[in-house]
Amino acid sequence: MADTAIFDVDGTLVDTNYQHALAWYRAFRRYDIIPAVWRIHRAIGMGGDHLVTAIAGDDVEQEHGDDLRAAWTEEFEPMLAEIQPFDGARELLDDVKARGFRLVLASSGQRRHVEHFLDLLGGREIADAWTTSDDVDATKPEPDLVGVALEKVDGASGVMVGDSVWDAVAAAKLSVPTIAVRTGGFSEGELREAGAFRVFESLQEMRANLDGGPLARSTR
After folding, report:
1. Model confidence over 128-185: pLDDT tens digits?
2. Which terminus, N or C, of the chain has the lesser number of Cβ atoms within 10 Å?
3. What's the rounded Cα separation, in Å, for the pair 119 and 195?
4. Which residues, 6 or more positions from 217, have their beta carbon under 8 angstroms from its beta carbon?
5. Of the candidates 57, 60, 58, 50, which has an alpha carbon nearest to the alpha carbon of residue 30?
């Protein structure tokens, strides 16, 4: 039984995955690298410190990694105003918090991006803690983010809520179970294969089924 609910932010609570993919595509094009956008999408949820290698290989990471990440920032930030929370995001957070869970909004994004998303969700008002890239040495699929989220609230055990295979892989490394939602565009089969034990089509469906799972009530 868990006492902490760890919610991924990008792609789970706010609808960002396709903006992320397009920004990466444009960043790669600056260096005459033209990956298929669908391949970039399969890597979204993985941190930028891993994504360049996953998409373009070690040589590109060594030669252009930092420049590509800077280019991604320049391409992504003009799209911030377009991004909105998914339907039911705040209501789901309210319901989970009301059941007694410590609530952590977990992101390895840049601080100013995370703060913007917190404002969209009213996250500062409800979350017990949140994370940014400043809190971790390595992003997903490494487990650092999940571990830091638990540490920030002195959680004894947690449940991860995410939208990507990388959320499930990272959480599994710390034996934290994952509930997945399909808001990131990954299939149910992919999410289950990565380790998610429950998969919902939407946050609203997840909210309607809280009483049947590990977020029914906290152990606190």
Report:
1. 999 998 999 999 999 999 999 999 999 999 999 999 999 999 999 999 999 999 999 9
2. N
3. 31
4. 99, 100
5. 60
CB count, 10 Å around CB of 172?
A: 18
CA–CA separation, 182 and 203 (whole Å): 9
Q: Strands 102-106, 129-130: parallel, antiparallel or unpaired by DSSP?
A: parallel
3-state helix, strand, coil in the chain (%, to 5): 55, 15, 35
d(CA 6, CA 121): 15
> Do the beta carbons of residue 181 and residue 200 sit within 8 Å?
yes
The distance of Cα 22 from the centroid of its chain, to the nearest Å, equals: 17
Distances (CA, A) of 119 to 19, 23, 84, 122: 19, 22, 11, 5
